[in-house]
Amino acid sequence: MFYREAGQFRTSYAQDSQMLPLWQDKLGMIAILTIAFGIVPFVASDYWLSALLIPWLILSLVALGQNILMGYAGQLSLGAAGFMAVGAFACYNLMLRVEGMPFLLAVPLSGLIAAAVGIFFGLPSLRIRGLYLAVATLASQFFIVWVLDKFGWFKNYDIAGVITAQPITVLGHTFATPQEKYWIVVGIVVLLAWAAKNMARGSIGRGWMAVRDMDVAAEATGLPLMRTKLQAFAISSFYCGVGGALYAFAFLQTVEPSAFTIELSFRILFMVVIGGLGTILGSFLGAGFILLTPIFLNIAFHAILGKAVDATIASALEQVIFGVMIIAFLILEPHGLARLWQLAKERLRLWPFPY
Amino acid sequence: MAAFLPSFETPALLFFVEVLVGGLLSGLMYSLVALGFVLIYKASGVFNFAQGAMVFFAVLSFVGFQELGLPFWAALPVTIGLMILVGMATERMVLRPLVNQNENTLLMATIGLAFVIEGLAQLAWGVDVRRIELGIKDEPIMWLADRTGIFVSQLDIVAGVVAGVMVIVLSILFSATKAGRGLRAVADDPAAALSVGIPLKQIWMLVWATAGVVALVAGMLWGARSGVQFALVLLALKAMPVLIIGGFTSVPGVIVAGLIVGATEKLAEVYIGPAFGGGIEGWAPYMLAVFFLFIRPEGLFGEKIIRRV
Amino acid sequence: MQENRKPSDATRRRALPIAALGALLALAGAETISTSHAAEQYFGVPSSRVGPYSAMGTGYYGGIIDYMNYVNMKEGGVNGVKLTWEECETEYNASRTVECYQRLLQKGDQRLVVFDVLGTPGAYAVIGRMAPDNVVLAQFGYGRTDAADGRVWPWVFGAHSNYWSQIAMKLNFIQQKEGGIEKMKGKKLVHLHIDTAFGREPLPAFRQIAKEWGFELTEISIAPPGLEQQSQWLQIRQLRPDWVTFWGAGSGMNSTAMTSAARVGFPREKMIYVTFGGAEEDMIPAGDAAKGTFVVANAVPGKNFPLVADIEKVVYGAGKGNLQNPTRVGTVYWNRGVAAAVMWVEALRNAQKIHNKVGKTVTGPEFRDGYEAIAMTPDRLKELGIEGMIPPFKLSCANHEGAGKFKMMQWDGGKFQIVTDWMGPNDPASIRKQIEDSAAKFAAENGVTPRTCPAA
């Protein structure tokens, strides 16, 4: 009843190319942004902000990067954590070595450095496909972390090989509290998600999807295969790099290269698949599911069972339930969580008179 | 132990041979893990992320049954039976509802499966680290060391022989039996295989059960070296470069690739590693894999991928 | 929670008068008592019970919880203040540790006073949050070494001994075996370590001593999880070092190192394990290959301590033990957990006394003062029933390490045999100087102004 497109006409090109053509969607987006910027930082506790929301947003951004590569361009890659590491350490070194480097400039620059590295490691994609490519990109994951680990320069020769992120300062103000850091993170994430949405629905995104669906056919129709693939690698790595910089500066604060393990790469892959390949929303939902479910299970187990059940058994049980949930979701909706939202929207269109 | 005498000089060439032989043999230990992946990939087109968890679960159960009082030769069939049950349950509860879904969804499902199996293993048997006794010493074979000066571990030799035997048996199974032919048909096109009357469910069950048994064997040998514990799950990472070099679909390819990966890894670490502070064996096999893929994008023994518009 | 408030009848009968007495005393001494219910002191338990580090996590945090339970059951808490706690699963990873820290930080109106994550990666991940949040980071023999300088790190403690002292103690042990420092010249030592911050932590002190004594130090790293170490051991075989100091984490890596040593015929009697790599859970899987291996202990294992026997009687006797497998009482990790909890409780006692809050809940800053006032004299250790389990030590404003001493143990195939008395670095002053230099460098780089401490 409330979610109808009937009566909303597009009478100009400008109208036709809007991101959210329906007023209901616009309203929804405004509501989400108001909540994200205006309400959440004031009502959420420090625990929610610093331990759940900030890492969730950052990993959503990285998942978005992974989704660009995997969901839109169809290049199965497993190096996301490696590119995050590039971003994190690039940002640290930019702040350290360039006098007066503003944080808000250092972040996109680290993204660009990650993008350059991404292009290099994307080269095998020109010849290798599918699962073989995924394992080949693992080389980048291991190699990057190894380089950062072995060469003390990247860590300013810290004795333990750990970097301590510099304080985040914008226009003379230091963003130190969880609330302030949240604003920085949510601002960057919203901006980049908006950019990703526009890339995905524009000619760039159509190029990616053509490559994904059938690269030989795409090439035959005149699409420059090399440029499209490497572009996807570059943009994806840019997102991962920015995410990595934020992960180090707004979340962990003290980082060693081995924090960006292969497990993290895998988790980012899980986020994209469970959230929904080739959707922006799915990146956010998937990151939320993979990051937050184990935490909530842990909290719930301790709250419900208390100390009546041995904590070791509880921890193992949490793993089992998490696994079962993943399988159940896939059986229920193999195309990811984002697809559930889409289906709900379609229902909503006819609601309450489906016939 | 007495062999480590300060006067015991190893000539450079002999040392090279030792590194090479050691590398080749530990490569075969990787092959054992990789074999389980190939079996499942061949039959259901899934990269089974849960294979590492299965290795852990299988050997932990084996040791667990022994702790409950079963002798070695009784625990073995019981564990094999358990792995067959796991295979059947996986087919029934994970694969069948997801039939005809794409690769990524299936991959994700096996990841969920990995969490379940890891959790169940720790639930059932606890988190204590255990020892497995196979009666094979992981020590240099003395008469070889005395005669040639090369140290080769008994366990390595046994692992190599076991890997070889398993590959031969599985190859025969695939090429010469009815189930094997069915399996290859399923691998080519599940729908077509089903339509000509090949029992898809049974084939899948058979393959997952076989993969479970392979996991048990790999777990026993690795457990003898490193202890029966959670870290065995991470063996899957060691298998990946072996898989891509060998090709995901080739059983004999696994052996050859294992040898290549093992030898490269050890030689690189021993001879190039020290110049960079070590640790290059983490990525050297993957770099090697990329190099091989540039020459042959479907692995050395993988089926040629032909793409048409 | 439920379980703690309901001690068995026997203990309740014993606990009630003590609690009542405590309350009375508090009433007499204090100005007002705002809370109607008995005071509680809340602790966070960031455990790692699943995954590759589960053997460590279940043992250590099992020991901590068992001791807290013991204090509640036996003494009715600390001066009547009940100990309560909340657990959180870290899976031994930095991001989950940060989440756990933030989750445990506040529970209702109670606030966390001490965090002990039993792992260098976890400690590094939260170390910057301690000062602003007013929480003590208790690193029992792990974590950031230069935090031993309390002037730069007021909130971080490395009691009772850190990694630099540990490596120096190992070298002291080696030089004694070799027959003096002058005999060390030209000797070859290999530091075989996990390729992380934890593995590299002792290197500055190690390199310094290598230079001073003139032995040759080769560093060889193992990428985690380290189930395959043949290349490292082949290098060792080629080098033929006199000693190997092993610095690993996770029982997969630890037991593989011994079996791989056996493969290349390196004598286990020349290997010295770090405190974190050497527990029963690491030795047993390696079987015969483990026999003869040396391990450094900061909390001595065994059941022949009055406290251990009493915990077994009181807590396990009542069926309230935390270990799934009660035979692990008295093992390395469990005893270490008990010793850690003893330090927490001792700090709490001190804090109550110093800040005139006997029988009341203390805050983070008060607890910090109490921790800094820990003085484990031999008499006090005897009173606590752990004489010989940890060395006597005393903390101060500047010295957040304390003892810097360890015992050397050797695995005989079934259990650990203690082979030395408490032993520290050959030159403790030089280690201390390195710690202070490193802390000063950190302070300069990060704009920290060290506080001034009264001269000791």
Structural class of chain A: mainly alpha
Work out the strand percent of chain A.
under 5%
Order of helices and strands of chain A: HHHHHHEEEHHHHEHHHH
Widest β-sheet, arrangement of strands of chain A: 1-4
The N- and C-terminal alpha carbons of chain B lie at a distance of: 64 Å
The share of residues in extended strands of chain B comes to: under 5%
Q: Which chain pair shows the most residues in contact?
A: B-C, 54 and 47 residues
Chain-averaged pLDDT of chain B: 85
Task: Please supply descriptive tags for the structure shown above.
heterotrimer, B: 309 residues, mainly alpha, globular, C: 456 residues, alpha/beta, 7-stranded mixed sheet, disordered N terminus
Written description of the protein model:
The complex is a heterotrimer of chains A (355), B (309) and C (456). Helix content of chain A is 72%, strand content 3%. Chain A has helices at residues 13-16, 23-43, 46-72, 80-97, 103-122, 130-150, 178-201, 203-213, 215-220, 225-252, 262-275, 280-304, 311-332, 337-350; strands at residues 163-164, 168-170, 173-175, 254-255. In chain A, 50% of the residues are buried. The model of chain A has no long low-confidence stretch (mean pLDDT 89). Chain B contains twelve helices and no strands. In chain B, helix 2 packs antiparallel against helix 3 and helix 3 packs across helix 9. With 309 residues, chain B is an all-alpha fold. The model of chain B is unreliable at 1-8 (pLDDT under 50). The longest helix of chain B has 33 residues, at 12-44. In chain C, strand 11 (271-273), helix 12 and strand 12 (294-297) form a beta-alpha-beta unit. Chain C contains 17 helices and 16 strands. In chain C, helix 14 packs across helix 15 (364-372). In chain C, the strands form five sheets. Chain C has a seven-stranded mixed beta sheet, with helices on both faces. Chain C is 43% helix and 14% strand. The chains are: A mainly alpha (355), B mainly alpha (309), C alpha/beta (456). Chains in contact: A-B, A-C, B-C. The interface between B and C is large, with 54 and 47 residues.
